[in-house]
Amino acid sequence: MKKTCCILFVSMLFAGTLFAGNPLYRYRVMLADKQATTYSLSKPQEFLSQKALERRERQGLAVDSTDLPVSSAYLSRLEAEGVKVVGTSRWNNTALVETADTACMERVEALPFVTGVLKVWTSPDSIPPRDANRKKQVNPFRQEFKDYYGPAQNQVEMIEADKLHQAGFRGQGMTVAVIDGGFLNADAIPLLQNVKIEGTRNFVHPGWDVYAELDHGMSVLSCMAANHPYTLVGTAPEASYWLFCSEDPDCECLAEEDYWAQAVEYADSVGVDVVNTSLGYYAFDDRSRNYRYRDLDGRTSLMTRSASMAADKGMIVVCSAGNSGDKQWKKITPPADADHVLTVGAVDARGMNTTFSSVGYTADGRVKPDVMARGGHTALIRPNGRVSAANGTSFSAPVLCGGVACLWQACPQLTAKEIMELVRRSGDRFECPDNIFGYGIPSLWKAYLNANR
Predict the structure, then answer these.
(1) What is the residue-averaged pLDDT of the chain?
(2) pLDDT of residue 21
(3) Comparing C-alpha atoms, which of 347, 55, 305, 37 is closest to residue 174?
(4) CA–CA dist 94, 117 (Å, integer)
(5) Distance between CA 288 and CA 120 in Å, rounded?
(6) Which pLDDT belongs to residue 125?
(7) In the beta sheet, which residues pair with residue 175?
(8) Residue 360 CB coordination number (10 Å)
(9) What residues are paired with 197 via a beta bridge?
(10) Which of 22, 70, 135, 320 has its CA 20 to 30 A from that of 297?
(11) How far is CA 330 from CA 141, 293, 294, 304, 360, in A?
């Protein structure tokens, strides 16, 4: 969705000039094959963790050629033409390269193993510095409420995740990745200090602190991971989390899809079970690259293709439908059009659809959104550490995502695709889906009972 996240900037008088001089450009380079790779399918432990391999083995999923890393010989040839390789996608067999000299891209495109190139990013004039005093805004005061889940009681009960919790399924042993724009102050907010963080990674600015970027991902995380009874408890309070940045706060560009693909592939490689992404794109700074309704076909967007492939690797992707329901676009935003993902729209506390929640169907007639969860006045944590509320499918997605992690914990014998279908079938509109509610509000407890008949 178009950025609605908040970031704190110091005075523009002190803005950085990271790209002073000639602009830099990034291109997506499509490669023909992996024939020159030094890796082998007979030794998958060289590029996938043991946890990732065990997840696939449980689901009967083989490692295939799409898992092999991009050919290092090809990457060396690209760099010999004067570009810098800044990222790769093994699933899509692409490289993301950077150069200040656009003329060298003609030489790159002429290489025999290159099938195409696409400009996906132009450097901004400057990037404002991140707030060095960000932690000072955190208020350690702890609020208390009458309900166990705090103000999240309704959103947890709506999908009956509370019943899974009462049965002992609170996310233990499950690993969730959050792919977002930043996790401002998540390392300093007292209500998040007991969250089990496995690691962090910034795919937009490698090496940069994810806790100093946008606050959006932190609020998303809190919908699942918060674990302070009578203040705020999320839908997967005992899961473990990876935090990844793929959203560029300084532009709206196709390269964000490349960063996202890198993030979901990394999530696969470290053994993540469930991915939440509350991001989506249909309009870019380069308007000629904007998506059209006919592009919502599950195949056009790189991000969409990657999201759909995740299930083939044994992961569940839960994504936001988008917040364009009351805008000119109205439709879901990629990757919400992907096959084999759970696309989540937003309802209010009464279960009524919110006006902003993006609608389906996909261009090829599939039901989207898949299901709904509370995204109207969703309880969450703000970057000052206080419990508050916000609107958006950005928050209905993690509310459901945490519950799905608990459901999978309760039903470890099922595959990723089986869990997703179980969730759809538990929707209160499963018999009569539409383009607004999809299959409706799911009952995760009903899904659990159905799986264990």
Answers:
(1) 94
(2) 63
(3) 55
(4) 9
(5) 12
(6) 84
(7) 240
(8) 25
(9) 241
(10) 70
(11) 40, 10, 14, 18, 9
Distances in Å between the Cα of 160 and the Cα atoms of 154, 273, 453 are 10, 21, 18
The ranges assigned to domains in the chain are 22-122, 142-451
Which positions ≥6 away from 413 have C-beta within 8 Å? none
Q: In one letter, which amino acid is 140?
A: P
Q: How far, in Å, CA of 30 to CA of 28, rounded?
A: 6
For residue 294, CA distances in Å to 290, 298, 343 come to 12, 10, 18
pLDDT in tens, 4-41: 343 333 333 333 435 456 899 999 999 999 988 899 99
CATH number of 142-451: 3.40.50.200
Q: Quick one: which of 176, 218, 170, 174 has its CA closest to 193?
A: 218
The owner of tokens 């793929």 is: 246
**Mean pLDDT, consecutive 10-residue segments, the chain of 453 residues?**
38 40 92 93 97 98 97 97 98 98 96 98 90 92 94 98 98 98 98 98 97 98 98 98 97 97 98 98 96 98 98 98 97 97 98 98 98 98 97 98 98 98 98 98 98 91
Structure tokens at 215: 């606050």
pLDDT of residue 379: 98
Does the predicted model carry a pTM greater than 0.85? Answer: yes
Q: Can you give the three-state secondary structure of the chain, one letter per residue?
A: CCCCCCCCECCHHHCCCCCCCCCCEEEEEEECCCCCCCCCCCCHHHCCCHHHHHHHHHHCCCCCHHHCCCCHHHHHHHHHCCCEEEEEECCCCEEEEEECCCCHHHHHHCCCCEEEEEEEEECCCCCCCECCCHHHHCCCCCCCCCCCCHHHHHHHHHCCHHHHHHCCCCCCCCEEEEEECCCCCCCCCHHHCCCEEEEEEECCCCCCCHHHCCCHHHHHHHHHHCEECCCEECCCCCCEEEEEECCCCCCCCCHHHHHHHHHHHHHHHCCCCEEEECCCCCCCCCHHHCCCHHHCCCCCCHHHHHHHHHHHCCCEEEEECCCCCCCCCCECCCCCCCCCCEEEEEECCCCCECCCCCECCCCCCCCCCCEEEECCCEEEECCCCCEEEECCHHHHHHHHHHHHHHHHHHCCCCCHHHHHHHHHHCECCCCCCECCCECCCECHHHHHHHHCC
**Please, what CATH class does the domain formed by 22-122 belong to?**
alpha beta
